[in-house]
Design a protein that fits this description.
Layout lengths: L3 H10 L4 H9 L5 H12 L7 E4 L2 E4 L4 H7 L1
Antiparallel strand pairs: 1-2
Length: 72
């Protein structure tokens, strides 16, 4: 997906309209929400996904889902 041809292949395999995607991409991407999420992630002392937060409890990794389940 690092090239237009790779991205096109993914879109077409998903049954999506490549022409419509190109038009949308040409408009630019608003990254404000992604940046806000990144800042919140770093503020929580985390650096990547999967990261989980419930109340004051924060953890990283799918192998920690049991901890979230115990929180109820």
């Amino acid at each position: 997906m690092s090239t237009d041809e790779g991205l096109r292949t993914v879109f077409e395999r998903c049954g999506l309209d490549w022409s419509a995607a190109q038009q949308k991409l040409a408009q630019g991407i608003d990254t404000r929400q992604a940046e806000a999420n990144r800042e919140a992630l770093f503020a929580a002392g985390l650096w990547g996904v999967p990261s989980f937060r419930r109340g004051e409890f924060t953890t990283w990794g799918q192998d920690r889902l049991w901890m979230l389940e115990r929180l109820g």
